[in-house]
Design brief:
271 residues, alpha/beta, Spore Coat Polysaccharide Biosynthesis Protein SpsA, Chain A, nine-stranded mixed β-sheet, two-stranded antiparallel ribbon, binds uridine 5'-triphosphate
Length: 271
Amino acid sequence: MIKQAIIPLAGLGTRLLPLTSVFAKELLPINGKPGVEYILDECIDAGVKEIIFIISDKKKMIRDYFYNDVFYKKILKKKKDPRIKKEYEKILKYKKMIKFVYQNKPLGTGDAVMKTKKYISGSHFLMLLPDDLIIKNNCSKSMIKIHRKFKSSVMASMSVNKKTVSRWGIYKLSKKLTKNDSVIENVIEKPSIKNAPSNKAVIGRYILPKNIFSEIKKLRPGKGGEIHITDAIQNLIKKGDLFVAHNFKGKYLDCGTMNGYINSTLEISKL
Ligand code: UTP
């Protein structure tokens, strides 16, 4: 059973500057609700019981958002507004499930994952990248089913326009296990159009095995001088670990770029 999820939130968010010069992008409202709450709701609905946030000192406002009890209690004493009470209760529910760990230097997603090592108890855990929203279907829930069925690690996959493959992690897939699930033979970070083995891209949902930590430990900085989680995954695949690419249902929204962020509000407002 997958009971724990981790969410890396310690990145700089440079593609959303100038907003991110003072604000954590994961708290930016999407149709009136902070982006990270959509991610939390997906986890909770998928049966996750504990969520580990990887933040940095610069992004302490994320912790403050969930630890603002004095403020809420004061307001609720003065103003018995049922809406505020409901919002506070929702935040309290989230708070009970969240642990915070710190990555003060953004050395890459692999390094961020490493910070959670001592808190992971099960054989596998879920990782969600908060820039990647998936609406209309709970991708984490479907991936947990695949994990149970094949006793494997799982990563979300989506077909992208061939011309854009150099922006994504791209899969080389082998055997098809079901209509929407295939064995991953290889993952290539941002290949050229010529070298891309497919147009199936990595999207930010992963079910990872606990032995990923010992692989991350062995890594040297890769592309852009960062420690990439995909490099550790690639090494586990080479050793024979089963990783399944799950072609998810639902609609993908990229909230990490300005156009994508604006569009995500428009899409969610239509639901
Ligand atoms: P990205 O590299 O896509 O996003 O990381 P970013 O660094 O936040 O933003 P840009 O690229 O500068 O615009 C994917 C996810 O991993 C987290 C980020 O917070 C984001 O949620 N991350 C990235 C970390 O937690 N630590 C890192 O060292 C790098």
